[in-house]
Amino acid sequence: MAQSLTIKIKLLPTKKETELLKSSSLRYIETVNFLVSEMVAEQKITKKTSKDVAVSLNSAVKNQAIRDAKSVFKRAKKTKFQIVPVLKKPVIIWNNQNFTVTPTSICMPFVIDGRSKKLSMKALIEQRDLNLLAIATKIGTLRITCKGNKWIAQIALEVPTELTPSTKVMGVDLGIKVPAVCVTDEHEVKFVGNGRMNKYVRRYHNARRKKLGKAKKQNAIKKSRDKEQRWMKDQDHKISREIIDFAMKHNVGVIRLEQLSGIRQQTRKSRKNNHSLSNWSFYRLAQYIKYKANVAGIKVENVNPAYTSQRCPQCGHHNHALDRRYTCSNCGAREHRDLVGAWNIIFAPVIDGNSQSA
């Protein structure tokens, strides 16, 4: 079995290389849009080849532009040409035979002074991405796009997903004050994320939108909401990556999570936590964990969340924790509340993995 995924790499182009990326990517989308307009006018797919496209792009890039134009035309045809997509954001694409990746750069061809030349562009490539490239069963296209003032390379991959033979289990407790607590059945522990910072950022955006609402600045409110969502999504990616890295470091074969159905009802709310809890996507974080675990060959199981934060891991007696400290009234055991939850998740009964949105 293979898992499809896309790795993202930050490019570090020089000034000249930046100008080359700008001109080439704009030329690319102009070519795609022109080819689409021709097809729409004739109501059929073009039979043009790279020789028929007179622009300063490599033949492989021209062929990719033709393929993209055909794809856009087919989408337009489904709407009976009432909606014809137009590319606006600069982008340029190479197929897998026209680029190479090294530990510090990406090499791809450009047309420079009328001639095709391969250019090696510096890039920040993380070790895990190099590992994925090394084990990939198939490497797809290289897509370079501009986000703000940063140039990002996206490479499509297929990697094997055979599950590791390890039977070591790790429980993960998700929450607000501590985004994630991991503990293995051999007592290795990791606290992931900064709940206080997360809550501060979300409350800041919420307070700012209230002020903007009074001023009736709807566009600014939308931008603030989008910015908050992007930040939260980025945090979920970072948290899930730390969890999987920790699991791989300790040779974990199974990760267990609480079933997400009803998690908001299970979590105690306070006035300050209401906005944080309502806006935090536990489901999305769990999906990121499952996705990254699948790529790493780690199995993910859902467990029954009943009493995981109340049951004493030493004697099994049920207690209510006071704030973050759990103290057993029966045996006197003392521990961090979320650590108790993660430990109990390891031994909780496994249930159907089709969890509901939180």
From TrEMBL:
One of its GO terms (biological process) is transposition. The keyword DNA-binding applies. In the N-terminal section; belongs to the transposase 2 family. In the C-terminal section; belongs to the transposase 35 family. It comes from the Bacteria. Residues 212-222 have a biased composition (Basic residues). One of its GO terms (molecular function) is DNA binding. Keywords: DNA recombination, DNA-binding, Transposition. The lineage of its organism: Bacteria, Bacillati, Bacillota, Bacilli, Bacillales. Pfam families: Cas12f1-like_TNB, OrfB_IS605. Residues 212-234 are annotated as: Disordered. This is Transposase. Residues 156-263 form the Probable transposase IS891/IS1136/IS1341 domain. Residues 282-345 form the Cas12f1-like TNB domain. NCBIfam families: guided_TnpB (NF040570), IS200/IS605 family accessory protein TnpB-like domain (TIGR01766). Residues 223-234 have a biased composition (Basic and acidic residues).
